[in-house]
Amino acid sequence: MLTNTIIQQRLTEKFGELLINWEEPYGMLTFTAPKELNLKVLQFLFDDAELKFTFLTDLQAVHYPDQKGAELAVVYHLHNWTDNIRIRFKVFTDILQPDVFSATALFQSANFMERETYDFFGVNFVGHPNLIRILNVDEMDYFPMRKEFPLEDQTRIDKDDEMFGR
Amino acid sequence: MSEHILLPEGSIEKQTTTLNLGPTHPATHGVFQNILELDGERIMQATSTVGYIHRAFEKIAERRPLYQITPLTDRLNYCSSPINNMGWHLTCEKLLGVQTPKRVDYLRIIIMELARISDHLICNSIVGVDSGAYSGFLYLMQFRELIYEIYEEVCGSRLTTNIGRIGGFERNFTNAAFQKLEKFLDEKSGYPAQLKEFENLFTRNRIFMDRTIGCGAITAERAMNYGFTGPNLRAAGVDYDVRIHTPYSSYEDFNFTIPVGKTGDCYDRFLVRNEEMWQSLSIIKQAYQKVQSFKGTEAEIFHADSPAYYLPEKKDVYTKMEALIYHFKIVMGETSMPAGEVYSSVEGANGELGFYLISDGGRTPYRLHFRRPCFIYYQAYPELIKDGMLSDAVITMSSLNLIAGELDA
């Protein structure tokens, strides 16, 4: 039976100290890989006879404006259907040069998901066959899900005091 | 003799026809644009465009407290909103560590399986409409009405239900709700009899079989690679179901089977959905029995004991100070949630509906992503309809059960 510990061991044997930030929030194994290695990690998880992470459940990005040099995180959720175990792994990239290798060669399903991620966060997936906007209008010249475009604040600032426990 | 006007040499640029199927076309049942390259009636190439009803839910959710995000999830797959609502509540409960009582789980399962039936019955009867048989649709539609009446009795609304709350339901199910459920489940006059009739009309119908067998087929490997989940994947022969693989809301207490197909074509998708409706009916009956086995004060439980996150009843708000405080904090969005990231998924009517929620410890999600099954499997559509006839493209689209709301978020 495949467990988080075994997955972590297998990955550490293969990639050594390159994979960092091992966590298990709510039971799902989570780690961070260098962005140059994202395809190698995906391929290894896909091909390895024991790991068999052959299903890409989800792919999206998160923007952390305060992490200088690693503002954008691309998050992959993978699922092994044989042993029914999920993992999540992230790669961080500089927002000024957001190039990440595309997973479309390995997973057809990554096509739309990467286009969506590009559309909202501007992650440039290198090797994607058709990296154009998907949900937003083609003329848009910014990436709306980034944190520099805040929505109107619905919490009133004039109540910002100790009395209301803010 | 020759009175025909001849086109000058070289004026025909290409031998194929370009056809815009959509964005608003009566045959596509939603806002879908497909630019087809046709050779006669045969599709040589297709390009799908999505995004016509994009509503920026993920961005909006970053400014909203958890309970205000529930109405956004309604509008994903609007044919089965309760499943989306429950999926969202379950995600929040996982993040907040709220434990729901068994009775709440069973009531939720009744509602979720009703929603699955209402979704599948629309999909399958629309496949009938697109293959030229309108009557099945008219007969089944009246039973969706009965399901909507049950929703109405439970939460007050019908299509975009916003049903339930974090931790349970807004009120206990009334006797009228159970009566309506019994009416729906009745073997003679209820949905089982009608579904049987619907199957008699379609399943071995020569015209329907000729029309759907081999149309829009996909192999199991391609389907997995394309990220298929739900009935469309199971029709291709893979028995993946979130209800079995990652049981939520006490699905492990129920006996049911997962129907699988073989060829992944429109006919198998139709059969899988029909069989799933029978399984859902069986689950509802089991859940209803379990709900009825609760007696006395246990039969009054309809929410978790979690005052910090469950919106208190109105009569308590007026009479109890604690309830008033929590009511104020929840309604004003002043409850902070624990920091963390959580992925939770439910078996939506179209497949694995996932919620990826990142909280930084604030009052609103730092990032929320919906894994929408439609959006992911729609990529395979050009491949499915390639080299087929134009009319097969229409029937393939309806048998994939593409819902525009889930596609665009």
Question: Could you describe the 3D structure shown?
Answer:
The complex is a heterodimer of chains A (166) and B (409). Helices cover 20% and strands 25% of the residues of chain A. Chain A has 166 residues and is of the alpha/beta class. Chain A has a single domain, classed as Beta Polymerase, domain 2 (2-Layer Sandwich), CATH 3.30.460. In chain A, the strands form two sheets. In chain A, strands 1-2-5-4-3 form a five-stranded mixed β-sheet. In chain A, strands 6-7 form a two-stranded parallel sheet. The model of chain A has no long low-confidence stretch (mean pLDDT 89). By secondary structure, chain B is mainly alpha-helical. Chain B has a single domain (57-408), classed as Cytochrome-c3 Hydrogenase, chain B (Orthogonal Bundle). Chain B is built from 18 helices and six strands. The longest helix of chain B has 29 residues, at 102-130. Chain B has helices at 57-61, 66-74, 81-96, 102-130, 135-155, 175-185, 191-202, 206-212, 220-225, 231-235, 242-245, 266-292, 314-319, 321-331, 373-377, 381-385, 390-399, 404-408, and strands spanning 17-21, 33-39, 42-49, 340-348, 351-359, 367-371. Chains A and B meet through strand 3 and helix 3 of A and helix 1, helix 9, strand 4, strand 5 and strand 6 of B.
Number of helices of chain B: 18
Distance between the termini of chain B: 61 Å
Report the C-alpha radius of gyration of chain A, rounded.
Answer: 18 Å
Question: How are the strands ordered across the major sheet of chain A?
Answer: 1-2-5-4-3
Say how many strands of chain B there are: 6
Question: From the alpha-carbon coordinates, what is the Rg of chain B to the nearest angstrom?
Answer: 23 Å
Query: How many structural domains can be distinguished in the coordinates of chain B?
Result: 1
Q: What are the segments of chain B in which pLDDT stays under 50 over at least 5 consecutive residues?
A: none
Largest sheet: number of strands, sense, barrel closure of chain A: 5 strands, mixed
CATH superfamily of chain B: Cytochrome-c3 Hydrogenase, chain B
The quaternary state of the protein chains shown equals heterodimer
